[in-house]
Design brief:
36 strands, globular, five-stranded mixed β-sheet, Maltoporin, Chain A, mainly beta
């Protein structure tokens, strides 16, 4: 199927209606359903959980300023994915749920592999995006990225996902360069009773169960367990990739007291197994984590939070990486204090310490030297939001962070927010952020492989960003919302591969340049029970090598992002407890990977049999037989049409 940005006619699965055929089909369906005159009074009880446009604007978020604030007042390009958005999309994993955020790039390259980023540089290990799950960082210092195949929660337990495009280093630290994703799960108090989720499709099957109960006086407990299996994908030649994988996960969350004056203890354990075409042995990944968080509300609007967690990761990769295995342990503790001064200053400050211990068993080809390494990171931050007037606020902040590789890094931030009226906000920001070295950058070696004689750079420094942002958010009518953000990013010391005498290539910092673009999204409540949403991003990238560089591939290889992305979504309630949801994604081509532009249509039909039982049927990639999204031509998967039937049963 050709994309919306293609001038050619669509493939055989669509009528000859030009490149906008999918959009026209959605429009016709929506208009036909609107004309049918569904009465608001016929909506089922499940729809009452949906928020109006005004209520969505008042959702409290915490990722922009580390304190609760209404989405409408946040001076950043932030998009919120709600629990209801996830349910109505029919997605089965966190990476797929992130496709709902119009300010993210999400591309899948195999049955288990995803590339996800904001504002560019989207490769398999997208290294400029910080991801948090309930305040626990899942960014890996091994390779400067996120292993999306092991990041999982029970989707029904997600409260919201806050997606910030743009730097967040002042509050969240290094590696929050192009964006921050903060995944927040629901309190155990809000998940009482039993929930069973079962799903089966032509490409995957899933099963999950959650149980919630009271825990003594003032406490609540949630337990869950889940498992899944995802089948092989195929290449463009129609060859099966032998990349079937399956996983199991279990965890708990216990809460005592209120959200702003209580204690939370939670943890997860998981394991994954991946079939490999190059080995009779499966690749494996496993891990566990335990997190505790204490909140205390003080007088005059002040508050204190202390959080600590332990995270364990184990992986073994036989076959392509013979004998390679890794064991990592992370210990982290952070505290913050918020207080008000003189009615004008809202100050939040804090600091913390993290230790990451990494041990590897090297193989004959892939080697990390030294085999044992400890990364120590200490930070101190402060941010002051100053009320210059009733409608004008200035935010100034900085984070001082010391790491074992590059020493002290400074990440300042300034934001100005003008509330034009009660429904409109104009904001501007100037920020500095860094991506600190990983073990791949400094300690990585490839031996006995003549095609790629590579070693890490002992002097590799942090990649640096200066970001200029301007945004506008408004709700012109109670039924309409709109957000527009523009940015100009200046990068320095980007990663390159430099040839040195002896035929070896060394990782260095010899690339610089800038990117600029626009991000916009909005929603329109056609009537009660029917909402339309749209999002569009434009990205332009201008990179160059520094004088003296001998790199011949990094500039071209960095062209891994579509210039245009468009998404359209319709969420419609029908009589008799039925729901009909559509999502269209049109993605421009990716030149460096020879990925053609494509259009994908997903559709979901849901039925609330009664207040405790829900059935849904979801179809994905309905507009073409299959298409690639990411990866090299020779090895990447092509994503085919799929269907998925799901049952949700809840009872007390």
């Amino acid at each position: 199927m050709n994309g919306l940005f293609d001038r050619a006619t669509p493939g055989a699965c669509w009528p000859k209606s030009g490149p906008y055929g999918p959009v026209l089909v959605i429009a016709v369906l929506c208009l036909a359903l609107h004309a049918s005159g569904v009465a608001a009074g016929e909506l089922s009880s499940a729809e009452l959980a949906q928020l109006s446009i005004e209520e969505l604007a008042d959702i409290e978020i915490t990722s922009v300023s580390r304190r609760p604030e209404a989405l409408r007042d946040a001076a950043a390009a932030v998009y919120v994915i709600t629990n209801e958005d996830i349910r109505r999309s029919g997605v089965t994993s966190l990476p797929e749920a992130l496709r709902l955020a119009p300010n993210l790039e999400v591309a899948r390259s195999s049955s288990s592999s995803y590339a996800i980023t904001a504002r560019g540089f989207n490769v398999g290990n997208a290294n400029k995006l910080l991801v948090l799950i309930d305040g626990r960082s899942v960014y890996s210092p091994l390779n400067s990225g996120v292993f999306w195949d092991v990041q999982d929660v029970m989707l029904e337990d997600i409260e919201r996902i806050e997606v910030i495009s743009g730097p967040g280093g002042t509050l969240w630290g290094s590696n929050a360069v192009n964006g921050v994703i903060n995944i927040l799960t629901r309190s155990a108090k809000d998940t009482q009773g039993t929930l069973v989720s079962l799903g089966v499709g032509n490409e995957e099957s899933t099963a999950a169960v959650r149980y919630g109960a009271r825990l003594g006086e003032g406490g609540n407990l949630r337990l869950y367990a889940k498992g899944f299996r995802r089948d092989d994908t195929t290449t463009a030649a129609g060859t099966t990739k032998s990349d079937t994988w399956d996983g199991r996960q279990a965890g708990f969350r216990a809460d005592w007291g209120a959200a702003d004056n209580g204690f939370t203890l939670q943890g997860d354990a998981y394991d994954r197994e991946y079939e490999q075409a190059t080995s009779n042995d499966d690749k494996t990944r496993s891990g566990a984590n335990l997190l505790g968080r204490w909140n205390r509300a003080l007088e005059d609007g002040a508050s204190v939070q202390v959080q600590a967690y332990y995270d364990r990761v184990r992986q073994s990769v036989p076959g392509f990486l013979p004998g390679f295995s890794e064991a990592s342990d992370t210990y982290d503790i952070h505290a913050q204090h918020r207080f008000l001064v003189g009615g004008r200053h809202d100050i939040v400050w804090g600091g913390g310490y993290r230790q990451w211990r990494n041990d590897v068993t090297n193989g004959a080809v892939i080697t990390f030297l030294p085999q044992h390494f400890e990364l120590k990171l200490a930070d101190l931050f402060v941010q002051d939001t100053i009320a210059l007037s009733e409608r004008l606020k200035l935010t100034l902040g900085a984070k001082l962070e010391h790491n074992s590789y590059t020493g002290l890094e400074v990440q300042p931030n300034a934001r100005l927010a003008w509330k034009v009226d009660d429904t409109s906000l104009l904001w501007a920001a100037l920020s500095r952020a860094v991506r600190t070295p990983s073990r791949v950058d400094r300690d990585f070696y490839v031996f006995n492989f003549p095609a790629l004689p590579l070693r890490g750079g002992p002097d590799f420094q942090s990649e640096k960003l200066i970001a200029y942002e301007l945004g506008y958010r408004t709700q012109p009518t109670p039924q309409t919302s709109l957000s527009v953000s523009t940015f100009y990013n200046v990068y320095d010391d980007l990663r390159t591969l430099e040839p040195v005498p002896g035929g070896t290539v060394v990782i260095a910092n010899q690339m610089e340049g800038h990117t600029y673009g626009v991000e916009t999204w909005g929603s329109y409540q056609v009537r009660e029970g029917w909402r339309l949403s749209a999002g569009y991003t434009y990205l332009e990238k201008r990179l160059r090598l520094k004088p003296g560089s001998g790199d011949t591939a990094s500039v071209k290889g960095a062209d891994t992002d579509p210039h245009h992305q468009l998404s359209l979504r319709s969420v419609l309630d029908l009589p008799h407890g039925l729901e009909f949801d559509l999502m269209l994604r049109a993605i421009d081509d990716v030149p460096a990977q020879n990925v053609p532009r494509y259009t994908a249509l997903d559709a979901r039909l849901g039925w609330h049999v009664n207040k405790d039982l829900e059935l849904s049927l979801t179809g994905n990639n309905l507009t073409d037989r299959r298409h690639p999204e990411s990866g090299s031509t020779a090895t990447r998967s092509e994503l085919a049409r799929s269907v998925f039937l799901k049952l949700l049963w809840s009872f007390r």
